Amino acid sequence: MAHTRRLVPHGFLAPAIVLFGLFFALPIGYAAHLSLHSMQVKGLGLGRNAREEVWVGLDNYATALADPELLAGAGRVLRYGAMLVPTMLGLALLFALLLDLPRTRFRAFSRLAIFLPYAVPGIIASLLWGFLYLPSVSPGYFLLNAAGWSGPDLLHGDGLFLALTNISVWGGTGFNMIVIYTALRAVPPELYESARLDGCSEAQIAWRIKIPLIRPSLVLTFFFSTIATLQVFAEPMTLRPLTNSLTFTWSPYMKVYRDAFVQGGLHSAAATAVVIAAVTLLLSFSFLKLVNRRAAS
Amino acid sequence: MKRRTSWVPTLVLLLGAVYCLIPVLWVLMAATKSRSELFSTFTFLPGSGLWSNLAELTAYRDGVYWLWMLNSALYAGVGALLSAVVSAVSGYALAKFDFRGRGVIFTVILTGVLMPPITLAVPQYLLLAKVDLAGTYWSVLLPSILSPYGIYLARVYAAAAVPDEVLEAARMDGARELRLFTSIAWPMMLPGLVTIFLFQFVAIWNNFLLPYVMLADDGTFPVTVGLYSLLQQGASRPALYTLVITGALLSIIPLIALFLGLQRYWRVDLLSGVVKS
Amino acid sequence: MQRRTALAVIALAGSLALTGCDGGAPAATGPVELTMWSWASLQKVAEMWNADHPDIKVTVQEQGGGDELVTKVITAAKAGDGPDLVQAEYQMIPTLVSNDVLTDVAEFAGGAEDSFSESVWKQVTLGSPAVYAIPQDTAPLALFYREDLFTQFGLAVPKTWTEFAETARQLKQKDPNRALTTFSSNDAGLFAGLSQQAGATWWQTSGDTWKVGVDDESSRKVADFWGGLVKDGVIDNQPMYTPAWNKALNDGTQIAWVSAVWAPGTLTTSAPDTKGKWKMAPLPQWTAGAAKTGSWGGSATGITGKAAKDGKAQAAAKFATWLNTDPKAIAALVKEAGVYPAATAAQSSGALTTPEFFPNQPDFYALAADIAKGTAAAGWGPNVNVAYNTFKDAFGKAATEKSSFPAALRTVHETTVADMKKNGFKIEG
Prior knowledge:
- The structure holds three protein chains of three kinds.
- Chain A has 13 helices and two strands, in the order αββαααααααααααα.
- By secondary structure, chain A is mainly alpha-helical.
- Chain A has a single domain, classed as Orthogonal Bundle (MetI-like fold).
- Chain A has a two-stranded antiparallel ribbon.
- Chain A is globular and about 85 Å long.
- Chain C is 47% helix and 12% strand.
- Chain C has helices at 2-22, 43-52, 66-78, 93-98, 106-109, 118-125, 147-152, 161-174, 188-198, 217-231, 243-250, 263-270, 305-309, 313-325, 327-337, 344-347, 364-373, 384-401, 405-422; strands at residues 32-38, 56-62, 85-89, 133-137, 141-146, 203-206, 209-212, 256-260, 278-282, 299-303.
- Chain C starts with a helix and ends in a 7-residue tail after the last helix.
- The chains are: A mainly alpha, B mainly alpha, C alpha+beta.
């Protein structure tokens, strides 16, 4: 009896473990297998069985790491993340704190409106903003021109970072706002009522009491937002046809996609993907470790 | 006692709301425009083509757009439901049982969140094709069921919402483990599971890469991939912008309705990790 | 014991049935089911076939643009999955053959050769005895211009590229807000066609060695020409197929477009207000009085290795031949998909009625046939996808920065050659 009892949690976990094995572990193993192989052609490379899979060891990794576009892409994504994450979380925190104030009006409306973009798929969001970015069809530029100004060029150079950041800020602020807001609601009001009676301003209360109390949820939103940022894909892909300035290697994921799908280099793409996954894991675990250590001390 | 409104915070929030509504308002207006109005008239004024756009969208390839919507509902609905169930049992096991390897299993599953979808999608396709499942409804449904994030949430929620004493008491009474779960833990975890369901519903509904890689027959497309294919018609047929815009507008309505409808059950506090354990 | 024998008998019967199927008698189990991936709307044409041929049932699955279709079909083939028939642009055929997507159907479809011109047929055989696809449409380049605006600004239709540049300058002078056209980096097919006209062959083979000529003299001349126009600011540098481009065509901000005979279909949707205002003229020439042109796209119906594996190659070849040579099918193709048929007989047949969008040019297809006569032959290689994608990024950058186009071309060339070497192709030079 005790023996069967011990297997109970494993029974409950069985579906998750099987699914994990089939749809996470196996594909990753397969990707690792691909990354160590390559296709080589015989003769002209035409006709049946002109290509065969050969073992190439770490060659694909060497090529992937030597490609300056991978590093450049990582740099672009970091720059985009450095613009996006603080802006998005800053706004989310600001809105959440404002929602938590006692004398704010139209709260339900604002909360819902700001949350709404969460329901819009990234592809569609980028499509909508794309229209708004094109000077000749955008109502924003129409108004600016009518007022005698010329709008910024959002589809080239530095403007592009603004354009992409804006799409993600728009899509992500509401969700993070709700998360932070709910954390704020869970803070017992007694904790700051006395401060209020002592004449502290709302800003002081927010800064000295509320924010320190919700630190765990801020850390969590920061963590998940950063992960999502590193995985940016749909937005630049959708904007790409609208501009000359978004290369297919703009972000490391786009490069993986291009190599695997557009250029038929499944094997080298697998190597790049494995590198990216490893870096992501490493960064995530170091971050979590750091947070845990600071929380412990 | 009547309290004065603080206007500055209210105004800032309303500004935020306006910013978030602009593109939605734009698509609402743009969807009312006929093809020649779309780029020639000021975009924040309604046009005259809403009904003809709707009719055209419905007529496009015998109403394939509505099939896409149904498919999206199917993938997201069934996928999220299964996902919630799997998350529930796993989260419950991880929170309420002490066994060897618990930490390892949990960590390994969690790393799934960090796996870039693109690293997974291609090998998933190649493997599913080997068992003849690529291109079927299953190829999108099955990989969507396991949600590491959902399991994480379910664990947090089970730890908080299901008291150990209740379980122990029931065990004393000789209840079977499975029954313990279905009749005690499940109802207690239900509000959290609704959140996981909604979370996963949105994730699947908004997913693009997986169905894009898996599916070939546009009768099986979800609405994201369908709209994308409308946008990429190839060199000799440029994007059908009026259709895309009308389709985009319609595609966001169900999710908004779902959120409004289930607003009461939407326990986001779960996501902020503040449930006390 | 008794039971075991019975089982053995059943097993034997089963294996017999299997061998029977192998021998090509699937008719016993109902019609042969074929799936086809295409970006053109071919469903209606397939339905016509299905109505007349109960033994072979074709289902068309419409896909996104050409590039994505190639990508998808290659991935599918790697997994042993995918359609039985696939629509492919000519330049992608070597890539598809090299990736084992297409199969040789010479024994079933070799007879179709007579229906097509030699240069078109060569593109589906790759100069070998094999036949990988049946040509569907050709796409000779021409100049499309707004007749009304040319008159309004007193411009003459350019006959040479020198005149073309002159026309662009004149227009800029008369109205700085308009441009003759744009140089778009987002479809290398157009640039490839223009290079063909100038005499380039991007890929050639001799023996088992490839020769890549993306960066040859003729292509450099074309790159230099367009780069100069962009640098001088006399034409636009923004990509095609964007909402902004649609608007520019629709409201006359751009008044000409170097395109292929399928342009009327595109203009119908991108510039709906300009019906009857466009005209087609032969492509400007490098040498006055010449009549050469290149191609931008054009496609064929390929038969896949999967069809061959499943014993459906013959049925697939039969359908592909019908689709692209039967007068009734071609008439439907022209109507449904707006293609300019590759079959020579059809090019002068009544199937081609004046495009609805060009009522002012009743001799549209007579002129098209004239232009098509001067189509330069094209040579494609096994990694056109790599070359085309590099083109997008390299020329996109050059067009935005107004920097050297020949340097961008050099990048495309080098990346293409490096990719081929990496894959083990033998390359000359």
